[in-house]
Amino acid sequence: MRWWNRLDAMVYASGVLYGDHTAVLRVRGRRTGRDTEVPVAIADVDGAEFLVSMLGPDVNWVRNVAAASGTAVLIRRAREVPVQLESVPVGERARILRRYVAVAPGARPHLGLKPTAPLADFGRIANDHPVFRMHERST
């Protein structure tokens, strides 16, 4: 899986195949202190961009973001942008989760919903999937 993630990271960072809804998130590892990179899908809602953990709150990148106080770097179209990730309250996640499964079809089996599912269904799973709003930050 690490090999596959590295391949995805290279493709996502280039932006050549998948466009604006894919990127690579670089965040400092909470234990090693080394930067780690993970391919991510970006959900866009009302002009804002969001990252979603399709695997829940206990994945490394989510824990690393918490340990790094939300600071990270987003690599998209071979451009590095420093970002600040802000946790979205559970009650505000349903619309973002719906958009996320629309732009990230590979996430559908993990969330168990299609983009056509009622918004209330997304509200029921919102607590299980951390969502972060991205803000560009100055270096």
Describe the structure.
A hairpin with a 2-residue loop joins strand 2 and strand 3 (48-52). The chain is built from five helices and six strands; from the N terminus they run αβββαββαααβ. It is of the alpha+beta class and 139 residues long. The model has no long low-confidence stretch (mean pLDDT 90). The N and C termini lie far apart (32 Å). The longest helix has 13 residues, at 2-14. It has helices spanning 2-14, 60-67, 94-103, 108-111, 119-125, and strands at 22-28, 35-45, 48-52, 71-76, 79-87, 131-136. The protein is 30% helix and 32% strand.
List keywords for this structure.
139 residues, alpha+beta, 6-stranded antiparallel β-barrel
Q: What summary fits the major beta sheet? A: 6 strands, antiparallel, barrel
Task: Let me know the number of strands.
Answer: 6
State the separation between the terminal residues, measured CA to CA.
32 Å
What is the beta-strand fraction? 25-35%
In one word, what is the shape?
Answer: globular
Judged by helices, strands and strand pairing, the structural class is alpha+beta
**Oligomer class:** single chain
| Total helical segments | 5
Helix content: 25-40%
The rounded Rg comes to 14 Å
Report the uncertain regions: none
Order of helices and strands, N to C? HEEEHEEHHHE
Mean pLDDT: 90
Q: Give the spatial strand order of the biggest sheet.
A: 1-2-3-6-5-4
